[in-house]
Amino acid sequence: MTATLIDGKAFAAKVRAKVAEEVTRVKAAGVTPGLAVVLVGEDPASAVYVRNKGKQTVEVGMESFEHKLPAETSEADLLALIAKLNADPAVHGILCQLPVPDHIDADKVLDAIDPAKDVDGFHISNVGLLGTGQKAMVPCTPLGCLMMLRVHHGSLSGLNAVVVGRSNIVGKPMAQLLLRDSATVTIAHSRTKEIEALCRTADIVVAAVGRPEMVTGDWIKPGATVIDVGINRIDAGVKDDGSPRTKLVGDCHFDSCAEVAGAITPVPGGVGPMTIACLLANTLTACCRANGLDEPEGLTA
Ligand code: GUN
Fold this sequence. Notes:
Blueprint: E1 4-5, H1 8-28, E2 34-40, H2 44-59, E3 63-69, H3 75-87, E4 93-96, H4 106-112, H5 124-131, H6 140-153, E5 160-164, H7 171-180, E6 184-188, H8 195-199, E7 204-207, E8 225-228, E9 232-238, E10 244-249, H9 254-260, E11 263-264, H10 271-290
Parallel strand pairs: 1-11, 2-3, 2-4, 5-6, 5-7, 7-8, 8-11
Antiparallel strand pairs: 9-10
């Protein structure tokens, strides 16, 4: 391997330490930042995420409010809870864990969250603010990628970036953030022609498609930076006891990309840990904005 490893775990620890330091400052001004997380149903992966979010929220000195609702909860009841959280001055950030059960319209719920408390950055107002270069709440995963890229490159100005994937949660906001930092940005997707050759023009490749190991070393320009947002669980043979073995891989084929890239994020331990760290950063930012306090430097876009 020739690429430098971008250690998201270490990076996230630094972000959390900075958030904790700033939480102390904000508390001294009389406010405790609070994050409310709403989980509807019993999806096991979501339950793990929510537990981790709650734990890390408390570890940085913030208040954590968890609302676990049964899968049968009606859309009206969920909207009523969101309205209550919107009106609660102790709550500065609200996150409704996705996916929600099929009988609930996720867009309706996301758009019911007060944009100032929308720490996911999914509300249509925040999408519009980001797209027009105004002060917004920015989705956590792309924000984490941006923070790592800024530290690694210093300036992104004039660099060619290809974002592979056009989701509302990662691909599109990632492209907006790179553009805001004056990179030249292309979004590639399943219909893109000659995607390999396109990626080979990039100084930065961000892969966010949810397809295991799709991006291989021959897609990468020598020395380029590869940010792998994918988290895919794939089969990896059988264990000694005959049970199936699985492993986590990204959207990039790590070994071949790492032979060519200048820097690369691993999976696990790359982008993943940055997502919750940025959620904490967004909660702190929302709290500062709501209370007219100075925003911490280096924790926002
Ligand atoms: N489910 C998986 N990731 C996320 C996330 O970042 N935000 C929300 N709200 N739900 C998720």
